[in-house]
Design goal:
This protein is an all-alpha fold. Helices cover 80% and strands 0% of the residues. The protein has a domain of 61 residues.
Length: 166
């Protein structure tokens, strides 16, 4: 970014562009330094500050592979920690499921499928079968009602077609 911006304002162009930039920046920066800094900083000039900032920027750019490598190492450590935590959580869940009875496992599966749990299903395995039978019957009733409506619509359409012929 620094290289791009410095090129944009004319640092990397002709020598006259750089001199013009230095003159344009020197006066306001020197005034700012004098008004805001201690007596130690009064000896600094805009060109010193500019040169130091460019050197620091290129130093950072020169060490960029190291910074990236450090970031990658940090990401690896973070991923390893997250992976270990997930593995522990999975092991804990597996031990919980191993200890569930058949009835408890059926109740859990019932909840995953978003089936409503009846009061009876909390107490017996047979009530799960009753709930499944009830759901099957409701589905059959819905399908039958749909077929009846379809037959009625077809009959009305045929009657309308015969009336139109007459």
């Amino acid at each position: 970014m620094t290289v791009y911006l410095s090129n944009y304002v004319g640092v990397w162009g002709e020598a006259s562009d750089s001199e013009r930039l230095l003159k344009r920046v020197s006066e306001p920066v020197n005034l700012m330094i004098k008004s805001m800094s201690s007596t130690e900083a009064l000896s600094w000039h805009a060109d010193d500050i500019f040169n130091r900032s460019v050197k620091k920027s290129f130093n950072f750019i020169g060490h960029l592979p190291e910074h990236i490598s450090d970031a990658i190492d940090g990401a690896k450590v973070a991923c390893t920690i997250m992976s270990k935590e997930a593995k522990l959580a999975n092991q804990e869940m597996a031990s919980i499921f191993r200890n569930l009875s058949h009835v408890e496992m059926m109740r859990f599966l019932e909840m995953l499928e978003l089936r409503p749990i009846s009061k009876d299903s909390l107490y017996s395995e047979g009530s799960i079968k009753k709930a499944e039978e009830k759901q099957r019957l409701e589905a059959d009733e819905e399908a039958t009602a749909g077929l009846k409506q379809q037959a009625k619509d077809e009959a009305e359409a045929e009657a309308g077609a015969e009336e139109a012929k007459q």
